[in-house]
Amino acid sequence: MQQGPNIYQIKFEPDLPEDVLIAADVDGMEQRICGEDIYPYWEYIYENEGGFVETDGRYILCVLHTAGMQGGVVMFWDTAEEELVHVSDGAYCVAAVLYEGEVYTLQLVEHFMTEPHFAVSKVPFGTMDCFAETDPVEWDIPVDMETFSGQTDDIKLYVSGERIAAFIDGCLFVREECGG
Question: How far apart are CA 43 and CA 35, in angstroms?
């Protein structure tokens, strides 16, 4: 089994000083993900309002938002190939995970046209279009929005086998038999 690159440190700069969004120490070498890498796929890169970055094996996952989370992008950077390999819709995204060739996202949908709620969708890994349609995952996540803290930093999404789980406000919600 081939071992992937080791990602030791990530510096996330959503305001893009010197056009650098992410600088990562990968096996002792710096890799930079720049605005110019993202702009061809998401023209709002220079208007982003921040987001989050995580590692997922050999990939760096980055979610950026604009317009109060109403717009956004989910991106995966391949540290072995040193290139952007996935770009998809990240509107309202508060968590994302790659599982068996699909990128699952958890959205906190809050806007004037609907009651606030959580939703899950998926899109094939390798998509390179931030406007590509996503497939909704049928799941009514029973979060009491009246008591929801509004904190999104600790929200996590997990996918394995026939289960999807979301960790929200210290509570674990599980959906069985997700059907892939």
Answer: 9
User: Per-domain residue ranges for the chain?
Assistant: 7-140
Return d(Cα 102, Cα 45) in angstroms, integer. 24
Q: Are 72 and 66 in contact (CB under 8 A)?
A: yes
- In whole angstroms, give the CA distance from residue 103 to residue 128: 12
C-alpha to C-alpha distance for 157 and 167, rounded to whole angstroms = 6
Do 8 and 25 form a contact (C-beta atoms < 8 A)?
Answer: yes
As a whole number of angstroms, the distance between CA 58 and CA 90 comes to 21
pLDDT value of residue 124: 98
DSSP state of 22: E
Nearest C-alpha neighbor of 125 from the set 28, 58, 36, 31: 58
- SS3 at position 17: helix
Q: How many of the other CB atoms lie within 10 Å of CB of 80?
A: 14
Whether pLDDT at 2 is above 60 = no
pTM (predicted TM-score): 0.92
